[in-house]
Amino acid sequence: MSRRAGARGWALRSLAVLALSAVWITPMHAAAEPSVAEASTHCPVHYLPLDESSGDRAADVTGGRTGTLHNGAEFVEGRVGNAVSLDGVDDHVSTTGVNLRTDTSFSVSAWVYLEEKPGQQTAVSLDGDRTSKFRLGQVMDGEHRLGSWVFEMPESDTDGALFTTKAVSTWESETDTWVHLVGVYDASANRIWLYVNGTRVGDGTVRNTWNADGGLQIGRGKANGAAEEFWPGKVDDVRLYVSSLSDEDVADLYRSYPDSAGPVSGSISASF
Ligand SMILES: [Ca+2]
Q1: What is the pLDDT of residues 102-113, one digit of tens each?
Q2: From the CA of 80, how far away is ligand 1's center (Å)?
Q3: What residues have a C-beta under 5 A from ligand 1, the ion?
Q4: Are residues 218 and 137 in contact, defined by beta-carbon separation less than 8 angstroms?
């Protein structure tokens, strides 16, 4: 009797803990200034759903760093609700700064829709003074003749900055379809990884680390102090994390999205 009552009591206490946890976790997603304690693997420090229907502002629902649309970038139907459409010439979306250090581990996630392959195009990056801290996008050149997804991090914030080894996809890049890309940086391991549609498909080495204090850029990169590598197509649901996501985390994130593109009722979970 007492053992059964004890088990029931344990169960009730567990439910109470779960309920309290839910109450405690929920406000984290709306916090304007995430603290170190909020550096959860499963809570993005910046999250731009890009679901607005008009205007030149894109909300950052977890970090408060509202994005600004430049040079004709506009909202269109996306992979999840709406997305931002970019002309590959000068369109982009930028924030003023970010709420994390980038000389420590981080991850970046986005849905991308590429309309033209030749050259190198960047879907998401973060500005340093002279170069991007990272670039997540596509490259098609003499070395990557069929086109490859790429996640790269320059070794220093300098003109002509070197790359030790880029994380280049083993899968051929595709045009005119939505693809989910994730770039992961593990500072302690000096490694970067690239995931395509939830699967790890490339890795690279970073020997030097540095902190970039510029803004998040959607639709372009930066090199030699100038904006470049403008993205021809669409970008949707951009997330930045203050940790290196694991294989399982990325697979769970990918599975958290609806199966196909189009409008959604309600909001997509920001718990990944
Ligand atoms: Ca969206």
Answers
A1: 999 999 999 999
A2: 4
A3: 49-51, 78, 80-81, 236-237
A4: no
Q: What is the pLDDT confidence band of residue 215, given thresholds at 50, 70 and 90?
A: very high
Can you tell me whether residue 172 is helix, strand or coil?
strand
Expressed in angstroms and rounded, the spacing between residue 10 Cα and the centre of ligand 1 is: 42
220-257 pLDDT, tens digit per residue, is 999 999 999 999 999 999 999 999 999 999 999 999 99
Read off the pLDDT of residues 169-199 as tens digits, 9 standing for 90 and up. Answer: 999 999 999 999 999 999 999 999 999 999 9
Cα distances (Å, whole numbers) of residue 140 to 60, 75, 192, 229: 31, 27, 20, 12
Nearest one of 229, 228, 217 to 117, comparing CA atoms:
229
Tell me how far apart the alpha carbons of residues 242 and 99 are, in angstroms, rounded to a whole number.
Answer: 9
Ligand 1 centroid distance, CA of 51 (Å): 4
Q: How far is the CA of 246 from the centre of ligand 1 (A)?
A: 24
Span from the CA of 98 to the centroid of ligand 1 (angstroms): 20
Phi, psi of 262 (to 5 degrees): 135, 180
Q: How far, in Å, is the centroid of ligand 1 from the Cα of 11? A: 39
CA of 83 to the centre of ligand 1 (A): 5
Q: Strands 132-140 and 148-152, how do they pair?
A: antiparallel
249 by DSSP, 3-state: which?
A: helix
- Residue corresponding to tokens 């970019």: 86
Distances (CA, A) of 168 to 18, 160, 171, 271: 41, 19, 9, 28
Cα(49) to centroid of ligand 1, in Å? 4
